Amino acid sequence: MSAADISSVREVNFDGLVGPTHNYSGLAVGNVASMSHGGLVSNPKEGALQGLLKMKSLMDAGYAQGILPPQQRPDIGALRDLGFSGSNGEVLARASKEAPQLLRAVCSASSMWTANAGTITPSIDAPDSRVHFTPANLQSSFHRYLEPQTTGRVLQAIFRDEQHFAHHPVLPATPAFSDEGAANHTRLCGEYGEPGVHLFVYGRQAFGDVRSGEREPKRYPARQTLEASQAVARQHGLTEAQTVFSQQHPDAIDAGVFHNDVIAVGNGPVLLYHEMAFLDEEGTLDELRAKMASPLIPVRVPLEAVSMEDAVASYLFNSQLLSNPDGTMTLVVPGECQEREAVWRTIQDYLLAGNNPISEVVVKDVKQSMRNGGGPACLRLRVVLTEAERAALSGRVLLTNALYTDLTAWVERHYRDRLAPDDLADPQLAEESLAALDELTQLLKIGPVYPFQLG
After folding, report:
1. What phi and psi, each to the nearest 5 degrees, are found at residue 33?
2. Of the listed 259, 275, 336, 337, which one is catalytic?
3. Residue 107 is among the residues annotated as catalytic for this protein
4. 180 catalytically annotated
5. What is the pLDDT of residues 316-325, one digit of tens each?
6. Residue 259 falls in the annotated catalytic set
7. CA gap 67, 55 in Å, rounded
8. What Å distances lie between residue 360 and 56, 167, 301, CA to CA?
9. Which of 11, 46, 147, 180 is labelled catalytic?
10. Cα–Cα distance for residue pair 194/216, rounded to 1 Å
11. What number does CATH give the domain 3-73+108-454?
């Protein structure tokens, strides 16, 4: 690839739109924010507008920004598969009475966190020079297990051109191949158009002899397996020289770090991480240094500066780390980082004043997402694309001022500004959601992707 071609390669952040049924049901075990806010009243309209405003501000700052639609919710088909019958209203009413947690699960708007949508390998790293996609099976929790089929259809609708894009099947939905997508995967490189090294972080090993020194968390489940990460790497044709597999620290998982992107974020040559991110910190860094063509720039935040409690509550490490043309980086953090003195002081003293490329910190309000346990990094799926690959995208999915205006008006028309868990049984909510999603697929020009559109 020529120097001109390398410079044209860009990272596009595809953010998930917050869905019309965004609610606080406390479904995610191990996600402290989700569990602690369960049962509160949510504001779907505010959540969707907050997400759109974040996307718009980053687009205005010059970053490439894409859109991924929400899932069809409530998933009444899932309730029918579980034995509920009758009209849609009867199914919802019966589920609300007999199995309220199931109803809450099939109404979850968790697909907004597109960092879990799948794992992506850019064409520069793939043996066939195509961008590779594997949707995550998300088998660790029922409400997210419902997502992969629609996610796969959405990704194939947008990244349709087989000359440029390759799609792989979801891994078997069993505990041995538990896969949570890009939330446990980081690509490190020099320029985006240069070969990269893929850091896969896992919580446990399912088969064979446990690696020396490994142990599992005791309080919360480890959601990513080594075997799942290895399988995705094989699907994408990645070699041993291109991959590093590192175990997440089990004590971090027990503290509420359910994904690696809650404790570490990387971009380009920079890896911003907490001292407790990896069980074998030095071994992980040494292997990255040995395999990367460009020097690794580790930015380590010690436990004495930010406690695990502060890291989880503020989501400092679930921030977006964005590259600028001048070689500097911008860190997009949630507003909660300002509310924790130790975290805000660390941002000023360790990050902005440190010897690293991070030169700017931007604060964004994503409270509706944060209360369910998802920060700025959870809300986006990073896809590195060449100029030709960007031109090959299908649909109207790259954010523009016109699309932002249309999406904002769409949210204003279709979303409620108040949703309590008891409201999920309202059959009118289901009708409102289907009408909104049908209009959205037309607005984004991606064609039919939802079960109700496919018959």
Report:
1. -65, -45
2. 259
3. no
4. yes
5. 999 999 999 9
6. yes
7. 9
8. 18, 36, 17
9. 180
10. 35
11. 3.75.10.20
